[in-house]
Design goal:
Layout lengths: L9 H12 L2 H8 L3 H15 L4 E4 L2 E4 L1 H21 L12 E7 L3 H16 L3 E7 L6 H5 L4 E4 L10 E8 L1 E6 L11 H6 L1 E5 L8 H7 L6 E6 L2 H10 L4 E4 L10 E5 L7 E7 L7 H14 L1
Parallel strand pairs: 3-4, 3-5, 8-9
Antiparallel strand pairs: 1-2, 5-12, 6-12, 7-10, 7-11
Helix pairs in contact: 1-2, 1-3, 1-4, 2-3, 5-10
């Protein structure tokens, strides 16, 4: 009984050569098989298709109506399979038509987006970049294809199957409005902690790296607002006497017009990385995009 699961798809290439040659000996020569091995392959094809395919006519073999019906279709399938399995040709950026979705936290697009758009437009004018926000560390959009690339700090809950590459190191700085009391004079841990603060926490936590650093000195700070992103924190800073601690490079564009200062406590640096799914790792266009992001972040 016919069982599709048991069909050897290598037989398609054998059938293509047999129908082209019209000869077991000629097909054997092309496929570098012995005539007896080629005869066994023809027998398997006859069993699989339920048709003799090639029949004796004097000294020659002639195709049956079924073989003639299959010849064009089989040839096309074999050519398509060969094209599919052939190594990818060199990427032609000038003709590339593609849309990429990049997912990042607030500040990344403002800091690096203009340079990335300019570079992509110069090298591949048919590429469209779609930027989306990254409200959490859920990597499902990479796994299900909603996002092609992400940037961010790798968390402990990141999927082990994802690929990552470091982009840059970033340090935290304090930020206040121009004219704030902290714009003048030395800023020690006690003076810093005595102010009123806004904390950035996408998960709504009430402590962060700055609080841990202050705690090591026996200090605490007053957090009067918790927000989910850098833009919201810096908007509050512009309009109040609140103090924020944000990554310097990541928020460079967002901090225009504000006063930044070195934190008086030792807060660990963070590493901002590229994150992508392995299924896109070998894709030439995706590889090009990763290179563009690395270049503008260097």
């Amino acid at each position: 009984m016919y069982d599709a699961a048991m069909v050897d798809l290598n037989l398609l290439a054998t059938l293509d050569v047999l129908l082209a040659e019209g000869s077991v000996v000629g097909a054997a020569r092309r496929l570098r098989l012995s005539p007896s091995a080629m005869s066994r392959q023809l027998a398997r094809l006859r069993d699989t298709t339920g048709d003799p395919l090639l029949v004796r006519a004097g000294r020659d073999l002639v195709p049956t109506p079924r073989a003639l019906e299959l010849r064009e279709q089989v040839g096309r399938l074999v050519r398509e399979a060969e094209a599919m399995l052939r190594p990818v040709a060199a990427l032609d950026l000038g003709r590339l038509q593609r849309r990429f979705t990049l997912r990042s936290a607030e500040g990344f697009v403002e800091a690096f987006g203009p340079a990335l758009i300019a570079r992509a437009a110069a090298e591949a004018p048919g590429v469209r970049l779609r930027f989306t926000t990254k409200p959490d560390k859920d990597t499902a959009p990479l796994r299900d294809g909603r996002a092609d690339l992400e940037t961010g700090v790798i968390g402990e809950d990141a999927g082990p199957e994802l690929l990552t590459q470091a982009l840059f190191r970033d340090r935290f700085v304090g930020v206040v409005r121009e004219g704030h009391p902290l714009c003048r004079g030395a800023i020690g841990p006690e003076r810093f902690a005595a102010g009123r603060h806004v904390l950035v926490s996408r998960r709504g936590q009430d402590r962060g790296l700055v609080d841990e650093a202050l705690a090591s000195l026996g200090l605490t700070r007053e957090i009067v607002a918790i927000v989910g992103g850098f833009s919201a924190a810096l908007s509050l800073v512009r309009a109040t006497d609140l103090i924020a601690a944000v990554p310097a490079r990541h928020t460079a564009a967002l901090r225009q017009g504000l006063h930044a200062f070195e934190l008086p406590v030792a807060v660990p640096e963070i590493t901002v990385s590229l994150i992508w799914h392995p299924r896109l790792d070998a894709d030439p266009a995706h590889r090009w995009l990763r290179g563009c992001v690395r270049a503008v972040c260097a």
